[in-house]
Amino acid sequence: MTAAPVTVGPQTSVAQVARALRDRGLGAVLVTEGDRLRGLVTDRDLAVRPVSRGVDTEETTVAGACGDDLVTVAPDDDLDHVVRLAVERDPEPAIGVCATRHRGPVGQWLQKEDDAS
């Protein structure tokens, strides 16, 4: 799980998010409104949704590109439980949360582990 995930607001442009992903070497950012977790946007989400449609990425926001059907887990949840959730929802990642603090995606490392085999 990411110790300090990057968050963006839903009105952040697709281009800004893409640059943040590239510059920080990330595959995903959390989309939040205040303390509310609204969704998760991945580099794949950007490529498959707005970019492939040819929209103006400086004018288009991530609100329509982020996945919002989230499953949340607590940092102290059993790892087997988290893995089961991730496998059941493939390719949708699970998000770890601690009270109202967003901790970050846990789905990407599962994918990386699968890719290594």
Automatic annotation (TrEMBL):
<dbReference type="InterPro" id="IPR000644">
    <property type="entry name" value="CBS_dom"/>
</dbReference>
<dbReference type="Pfam" id="PF00571">
    <property type="entry name" value="CBS"/>
</dbReference>
<keyword id="KW-0129">CBS domain</keyword>
<dbReference type="InterPro" id="IPR046342">
    <property type="entry name" value="CBS_dom_sf"/>
</dbReference>
<feature type="domain" description="CBS">
    <location>
        <begin position="1"/>
        <end position="57"/>
    </location>
</feature>
<protein>
    <submittedName>
        <fullName>CBS domain-containing protein</fullName>
    </submittedName>
</protein>
